[in-house]
Design goal:
single chain, 273 residues, alpha/beta, Metallo-beta-lactamase, Chain A, seven-stranded mixed beta sheet, 6 helices, 21% helix, binds zinc ion, lyase activity, lyase
Amino acid sequence: MKIHFLGTAAAEGFPNPFCRCEACRKARSLGEKNIRTRSSILIDDVIKVDYSADSHMQALRDRIDLGAVEHLLFTHTHYDHFQPSDLYNRIEGFAHGIDHPLHIYGNDAAICQSGMALGQVAGSNRFAFHLLRPFETISLGNTKITPLLANHDQLETCLLFYIEKGGKTLFYGNDTGWLHDDTWAWLKGKVIDMAILDCTHSFTNNVRNPNHMGIETVLEVQRIWKEEGILDGNGLIYVTHFTHNSGFLHDDFESAFRPFGIQVAYDGLIVDL
Ligand SMILES: [Zn+2]
Ligand SMILES: [Zn+2]
Ligand SMILES: [Zn+2]
């Protein structure tokens, strides 16, 4: 599996273009891995997770052909993950040489709002919609996807994904705080080769932080996964979805996680799993 990190920031981006805090000022002046757009990944060039307003520029930045993407999975409808009106660029007359629909998957809020955002063209052969239910596995060709429950917005069925392809497994774990009980139960006996975990915060003084994780919560998840054999000696963890409000720049997160063998994702990073 090729995992391409398109964006690694929380909702406001890092730096937030409107913000004049110390972390944003430093990120602007240092540039490079400190410039983060809103969180999304691309798997094997054909499966994309989430579509924020930054997806357009991420595609231009990394020279990605979004016309080749076959499947778009939405975790939830917070604005940093969900900008379906931008998919209008894929309609007939705007996008040429398209030979397949973009299959869009999500909870009922994501599917309903995508349909409304696209209006009449939602029913064209450029789009197809599929409702996801937690813990019901779907097959996309040779890839199996199981939506898991996040511990995030309590008024929405926010999803995480367990993705199986070519004998490897990827856990897509943002946005979420300390994992939902039903997700812990489902993961028992499973193996994770690579996990992408929410690390919105830096230190929170809470090892089981709800809504979003911070450094302590990520380390606690790693500890239990290792104890339960879900993550073996070769299992990888990459952290993502960082906020400037943490005050931590890329190097600060690397220093915090290096002793634990956890990698800090950055925009444009490609991992071959
Ligand atoms: Zn988010
Ligand atoms: Zn800031
Ligand atoms: Zn969110």
